[in-house]
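Quick one, T. Sequence first:
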Amino acid sequence: MAKVLDTQAYLDMVCQLLDQGQQHVAVPVAGGSMTPFLHHGDTVYLDLPDTPLKKGDVVLYTRLNGQYILHRIKKINKDGSFIMVGDAQQALELLPSRDLIHARVTAARHRGKRIHPGQPRWWFFQHVWLMVVPFRHRLMQLSGVLRGKKQKENAAREF
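Structure tokens:
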């Protein structure tokens, strides 16, 4: 029989581990809001931020309703608030306080490969993908069409 783990309780424990000095806490990604950078089932490695947060960082934070979210910082406002966005989203979210941010993603395992800041995939999503927020859905649709076309061509070659 499979056990069901309460996500809220699980992430509460992750935050406690980080607060106690644990480093590189591995957490599985649930959901698709960070697609295409991260997919459901990938793993992120969380650490307490040891340097100032910046535009493009992926962070674990809580919304005012207590829900944990893993999204990217789109902008840091002069008043100390943050504009957040998931990589699969166009809607921006205001995060009113730094106190709501618990951890920064310092590495990830995407489709079995470990990725780090500075690597091309990380850099692309941290910089380029963040600039094209209004066009993301169209770009993702185009990518899906191109992938589908390539899969059809490969299937035809195999036949």
